[in-house]
Amino acid sequence: MPKPVVSVVVPTRDRAGYLDVTLASLVDQDFAEPYEVIVVDDGSRDATHDVITRFEVRAVVQDAPAGPNAARNAGARAAAADLVALLDDDVFAPRAWLRALVEGAQRHPEADAVGGPIRARLEGPAPRSCGRELPPVTTLDLGPADRETDLVWSANMLFRRDAYERIGPFDESRPPGGDEEEWLRRLTDRGGRVFYIADAAIDHRRTGDDARLRSLMRSAYRRGRNLRAYDESRGTAPGLGRELRVLAGCGWHVVRRACPQGLIMGAHSAGRLATAVRR
Hints:
Layout: E1 6-12, H1 16-26, E2 35-42, H2 48-55, E3 58-62, H3 68-78, E4 83-87, E5 91-92, H4 97-107, E6 113-115, E7 118-123, E8 147-149, E9 156-160, H5 161-167, H6 179-189, E10 194-196, E11 202-207, H7 213-234, H8 240-257, H9 261-277
Parallel strand pairs: 1-2, 1-4, 2-3, 6-10, 7-11
Antiparallel strand pairs: 4-9, 5-11, 6-9, 8-10
Helix pairs in contact: 1-2, 7-9, 8-9
C-alpha cells in the first residue's frame, strides 16, 4: 500500500451510533490520493469495536479511557502520513471535505495547521430557537474565504507532522473543553501559523435524545465548567461579577424572547459560574 497523503484520526468513546455515520462519510470521500482512517477507541464498552470492524479502518485501542488529547496523541503516533487530520466522532463529512482540507493545506504551505467550518446539525426533537443565540453545539464560521486565524477546532482540523514534532503532543492532563486550544496557543506562541479553509466544512450532529433540551443543557453546563477552568489556567477568566451578569442576561433572554435555547446558554453560563465559585 502506498504511503497515504493524509491520515484522518477519529478519537471516540462509547458513541457507536454517531461513529457509524462518521465512518460511512469518511470511506466515501471524493479524494483521488491514498488516505487512511484511524479510529482511536478510548476504552469504549459499547458496539464501537463492531463499527470499526465493519468499515475496515485502522484501530488503536486504549484499554482504559485516557481522554481526548491522549487519543489524539495516540492517533498522531500511529499515523503514516505527513498530514494528520482530526475529526470528531459525531460529525458528518461531505464527500468533498477531505479534498478541500488537503488542498487548503497545499494552498497555504506557510500554515502549520488548518481547519474548516463546523455547522450545527440537530436531528430530532431540537428546541426552538429565536435566532439570536449561537447554536447549542460547537460551531465555527469565519466567512466565505480562506483567512489566517488564531484558532480552529479539533472537530475539523489538520496539522503537519513537523509542526506536531516541533511543538510537542497535546496536553493529556487537560479535561475536555479548551483541550486542543492549548496546543494551538503553544503553536502560535512559537511563531506557528493557523489558517481557516472556507470550503472544508463538516456537520456537527446531535440526534435523538442528545438533541433534546435537557441533554443539550447538561452538555453546555459541562462545557462551561471546563472552559472556565481553562480560562483560569491562562489567566484570562473574567471576574465573578461578569459571570453573574452573563447568567442574568441569559435568564432575561429566556423570559423576553420565550426562547428555550436561552436555557442552554444559561446552563453554559451556570457551569462557568460553578467553577468560579469553587476555586
